Amino acid sequence: MEDKPGNVSIEQERFQLRRLEISDKKKGFIELLQQLTVCESVSDKDFEERYQELAKHGDEHVICVIEDRHGGKIVASGSVFIEKKFIRNCGKVGHIEDVVVDSSIRGMQLGKKIVGFLTDHACSMGCYKVILDCSLENKPFYEKCGYKQKEVQMVKYFI
Amino acid sequence: MEDKPGNVSIEQERFQLRRLEISDKKKGFIELLQQLTVCESVSDKDFEERYQELAKHGDEHVICVIEDRHGGKIVASGSVFIEKKFIRNCGKVGHIEDVVVDSSIRGMQLGKKIVGFLTDHACSMGCYKVILDCSLENKPFYEKCGYKQKEVQMVKYFI
């Protein structure tokens, strides 16, 4: 569904983009992540501990979500963290991770909103670039978000 | 040059792998990074500030170097930082960045030692995987280090 003039205000009212809050666990945040990859259910205690650990990083590690006010569910999410380097005049790089949109609600440009928010955040933090890894299948989506392929991602699993 | 039994002790004496120290700026650390990418000269003040910022992260952001005791120069370096997630049972992922070996001293397996150290560190920190981005040209090197290609890296530059 394209954003049309008549839809904008309705959509803005329905979909709220904001930072992750502790209460989002009850709004289906973990179930949303389960659509992305292996994500066992997390206890309230473990969730709160990890939430507080990430909160210590302040603007250097941000998780954003979109809440669908029709039903009060979290329907999209993504994260970005800021890496500090010595190269590029002690520059910074934004790393986008774990972008996901609820499979039942795709085609509403919610993924683009998430990536746009995370990209803008990296820019506002003074990063000289922002990077992410994706499957070849998702490459066209990120190209629509203004990204270009550069390198290849290599991985080593421990478990 | 392959590691041969007779060379090991001599090499171990010559090449010392350790964490970055503030005094490494005087040992050519920035000049080494200049072989990797754009890296303007950094003032002592800026270097120390960034060093201290990174030090705050403790074991969650480690830069290692190899010093060549013949001449007291830094001849190899690489970094790894630990990202905390909610997925994978509140798992962690290691991100390896900025691996570089002095062009005058390649073929001594120093790159492999750097990647091995950073990979082991990510493992010891409880990461379920470690990832990095590289050019297609460098892919065979990382395959020798036990890595496999998985996804593609996308980038957006701000400057």
Automatic annotation (TrEMBL), chains A, B:
Belongs to the acetyltransferase family. GNA1 subfamily. One of its GO terms (cellular component) is endoplasmic reticulum membrane. SUPFAM superfamilies: Acyl-CoA N-acyltransferases (Nat). This is Glucosamine 6-phosphate N-acetyltransferase. It catalyses: D-glucosamine 6-phosphate + acetyl-CoA = N-acetyl-D-glucosamine 6-phosphate + CoA + H(+). Homodimer. The gene is LOC113736579. It comes from Coffea arabica. Pathway: Nucleotide-sugar biosynthesis; UDP-N-acetyl-alpha-D-glucosamine biosynthesis; N-acetyl-alpha-D-glucosamine 1-phosphate from alpha-D-glucosamine 6-phosphate (route I): step 1/2. Pfam families: Acetyltransf_1. The lineage of its organism: Eukaryota, Viridiplantae, Streptophyta, Embryophyta, Tracheophyta. Its EC number is 2.3.1.4. PANTHER family: GLUCOSAMINE 6-PHOSPHATE N-ACETYLTRANSFERASE (PTHR13355). Keywords: Acyltransferase, Endoplasmic reticulum, Membrane, Transferase. Gene3D superfamilies: 3.40.630.30.
